[in-house]
Amino acid sequence: MVPLLLLFASVAGLIDYSYAASAAFVIPCRAADEKCLLDNLGRGIEAYKDGIPELGVGKMDPLYFTEVDSSSPNLKFILRDLTVTGLKSCKPLKLKRDPAKSTIVLKLQCPIKLDGEYELDGQVLVLKVGGKGKIHVFLKNLEIEVTLDIVKKEKNGEEYMKVKKFTHSYELKEKSDLVFEGLFQENKVLSEAANDLIKNSPNEIVNEIGGKMFEACITEVVKNINSMFSHIPTKELVLD
């Protein structure tokens, strides 16, 4: 879920050190030099987790959300006061830039934690569920891949990049921890049935109801990426 929140760290690896003292670790790379890009991504995760105020980039770890509506036609699922952590522990798996297609593709492996409040009413997998209270999620081994479609804009005689849209996919490589406090508080039988389902099938539940949470996190990160792009001309971000 956020993972993607994790997008910024990868793109940050492309910044030229002449524009930000905090990016002195960056080695400018050509698109074909995937090792150079991946090395920058690894250094960028650590260097940019606290944000870059001079580029309008907010703190990336943790991320906070007042409310995320992850409902579907068969399920009301509202998250409130949500905190997402884990960016600083992500490992870079891939960073690829394709100038011909105007895309940046990145892949990360992360342990992501989410804590907040939830409101749930409807069907999850094969079970009717309902309740509200605290939610705790630990995605022990999340692999997420995101493709950024890039467009170029001109401002004050300079060319700048902008993320026009993104697509993403993810895979849970280990069994996750998922806790909904307060499910069916007034019905012990239903509460036990719901908690058993969650305990035995956490990844299946995340896959069914977590899509909009991932999208919300990535959308927030893309805002930060575009803020950064708006401050730095394209010629200072890439070598080709």
From TrEMBL:
Q: Which GO terms describe its cellular component?
A: extracellular space
InterPro entries, per database record: Haemolymph_juvenile_hormone-bd, To_sf
Keywords for this protein: Signal
Residues of the signal peptide: 1-20
Protein known as? Circadian clock-controlled protein daywake-like
Which species does the entry assign this protein to?
Answer: Spodoptera frugiperda (Fall armyworm)
